[in-house]
């Protein structure tokens, strides 16, 4: 089975740009109801992922954090507590499953590290459940 089978392409995925501010990230997270979003740079390279908790911890570190600071501080300056490992589109399904055990979604990149989409753990599980039901279950 190919990773492309599970891929949600970049055009259908919410993501942030590395030059976004904390405020822009929070607004997008709030609007789309996501707790974690991938970050790409202006060239389309996968930069990492950031969580609402990462932003909250950054705010906590700033004793006088206010909305004006949130409008100036860039995402690339926020320490991320967790690394969301990306996977190359050419990797096999076993590697995808291994990485998905540790994170809710897996960012997918091409050979040039360009972000091309994500695979969600939910989509992987649903696919295997559907296959299992169609095959009559396991013995």
Q: Keywords, please?
A:
3-stranded mixed beta sheet; CBS-domain; 4-stranded mixed beta sheet
CATH architecture: Roll
Q: State the oligomer.
A: single chain
How would you characterize the largest beta sheet? 4 strands, mixed
Write down the Rg: 17 Å
Count of helix runs? 5
Choose one word for the global shape: elongated
CATH topology: CBS-domain
**Average of pLDDT:** 89
Question: How many distinct beta strands?
Answer: 7
Helix content: 25-40%
Ends distance: 22 Å
List segments where confidence is low: pLDDT < 50 over at least 5 consecutive residues. Answer: none
Major sheet strand order: 1-7-6-5
Order of H and E elements: EEHEEHHEHEEH
Summarize it:
By secondary structure, the chain is an alpha/beta fold. About 35% of the residues lie in helices and about 20% in strands.
């Amino acid at each position: 089975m190919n990773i492309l089978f599970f891929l949600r392409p970049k055009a259908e995925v919410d993501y942030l740009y590395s030059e976004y501010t904390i405020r822009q990230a929070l607004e997008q997270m709030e609007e789309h109801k996501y707790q974690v979003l991938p970050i790409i740079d202006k060239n389309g390279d996968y930069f990492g992922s950031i969580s609402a908790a990462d932003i909250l911890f950054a705010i906590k570190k700033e004793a006088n954090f206010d909305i004006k600071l949130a409008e100036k501080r860039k995402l690339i300056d926020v320490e991320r507590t967790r690394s969301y490992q990306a996977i190359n589109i050419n990797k096999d399904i076993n590697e995808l499953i291994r990485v998905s055990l540790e994170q809710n979604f897996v960012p997918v990149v091409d050979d040039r590290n360009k972000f091309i989409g994500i695979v969600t753990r939910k989509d992987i599980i649903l696919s295997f459940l559907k296959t299992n039901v169609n095959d009559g279950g396991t013995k």
